[in-house]
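Sequence in, structure out. Go.
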Amino acid sequence: HSGLSVIFALLKRISEFPGGAGACSAGIECLNQWLSDDQQLSRLLALQQFPELLATLKAFASQNSTTASATALEHLSSLVPQLARGARNVPQAGEQWQTLWVPTLQALADIAKHGAQRSSAQAFVYLQRLLLERGTELSIPWEQVPFPVWKECLEGIMLPLLSTPGAAPGQAPDPDGARQASAAQLICRVVLTHMPDWVRASPDGFPVLFLRLLHVLVSEATSTSACREQLVESLKNLLLVISADPAFAELASPNVGETLLEGAWGVVSPAFPSLRKEVALILDPMAAEPLSGQAETPPAAAAEAS
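Output:
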């Protein structure tokens, strides 16, 4: 156990020097051996070494445009789906994969937010795989993910991913807001994709979580200038879909006597007062005709004037 800790510490140290191609290749090859061998992987999990394994993969994945970073990112995206689908002969994985999924998402989210540019872009792609993909060998069996785990994922990982990245030493800046815009698009897609299951699983918990998401989206859209337009567009698309959904219209807000749709507009409209009208006109273009007609002189009045 102590020997493994020393090896992981050494590997993480090696990852800090991507210019040493030979050492990095040897380090990632060591990880490849552990991850490709079911017996070795089972041993690591039994010894509670998954956090160390994850931290080491994250360290290599954070490099910019190296073979080691590409390999580490691929491992981060594929390991948990393999365990969840029973593709690996790792006995304890059948019970543990959900507890491994959330930390893996956290590692990818950290790379997406703070990693080098290319690593960040690839991390967003793999987050989509782990959060959205269905019906493939690398998709998660969503029916096995309970709502509390999803809630932990959104509140602990996805919403912080949406917040404006800091510019602390060692962190990649996001001057054009591209990462924040990608985070907003991803979160909205996740919510819309899994919303029916969440409503069935927790009819009381989902409305609270949904309104919290809207509060964060609105807050970020009003406080940033770099990608304000993209954030508002994501918000608009989300509101467009829920406004057109008859099932959503029947959901109750946490506030007594209010629908969830009304509650949603109550969060959005104070910051973006014209958005509700924009959505309404997209859903019903004919609604614009009476408005335009009011500006014209009625035919009868025109005849009297003549």
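Check: Confidence is low (pLDDT under 50) at residues 291-297, 299-306. Residues 141 and 191 are 17 Å apart (CA to CA).
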